[in-house]
Amino acid sequence: MPEVHTLLVDDNPGDVELVRLALKDGCILNRISVVEDGEQAIHYLRRTGEYTDAVLPDLILLDLNLPRVDGREVLEEIKADPELKHIPVVILTTSDAEQDVLHAYRHHASCYVTKPAEAHEFLKKIRGIETFWLTFVQFPRQ
């Protein structure tokens, strides 16, 4: 089974650690790269600045409320870029605002997942994401 590479874009260290924990315990060989803000995400995906050797991810987990460049803008940039738009983007955020959900789907997010406050529920959701996206879905190989 080939390795799956996930880019996690999240500025909350606790959430990052929970995602790492949930995916580490999973049954899929998953390499996780983490960036903490939207500007870093764009540099990572375009392989500029300190990210010239970055590997394009198979899947992006994207928070909306990020410093510098917010996740809404990052999503728009990803889906407007012919080199990146094929990458599935899972919105993983605390916002359950209807305008955020609509914006995400209008800009071609693959799905929208709200982060629960309880750690065990958060882990359950991440494992659900893993089950679907990393077990059932086939990614294009670059």
Q: Can you tell me about this structure?
A:
Helix content is 41%, strand content 18%. It has a 5-stranded parallel beta sheet with strand order 2-1-3-4-5, sandwiched between helices. It has a single domain (4-133), classed as Response regulator (Rossmann fold). The longest helix is centred in the last third of the chain and has 18 residues, at 119-136. It has helices at 13-24, 38-46, 71-80, 98-106, 119-136; strands at 4-9, 30-35, 59-62, 89-93, 111-114. Helix 1 packs across helix 5 and helix 2 runs parallel beside helix 3 (71-80). Helix 4 links the parallel strand 4 (89-93) and strand 5. The model has no long low-confidence stretch (mean pLDDT 90). The two termini are 16 Å apart. It is an alpha/beta fold and 142 residues long.
Write the layout of secondary structure elements.
Blueprint: E1 4-9, H1 13-24, E2 30-35, H2 38-46, E3 59-62, H3 71-80, E4 89-93, H4 98-106, E5 111-114, H5 119-136
Parallel strand pairs: 1-2, 1-3, 3-4, 4-5
CATH topology: Rossmann fold
How are the strands ordered across the major sheet? 2-1-3-4-5
Helix share of residues? 40-55%
Count of DSSP E strands?
Answer: 5
Low-confidence parts lasting 5 or more residues at pLDDT below 50?
Answer: none
Question: What is the domain total for the residues?
Answer: 1
The proportion of strand residues reads: 15-25%
Name given to the CATH homologous superfamily: Response regulator
In CATH, what is the class? Alpha Beta
Instruction: Just name the CATH architecture.
Output: 3-Layer(aba) Sandwich
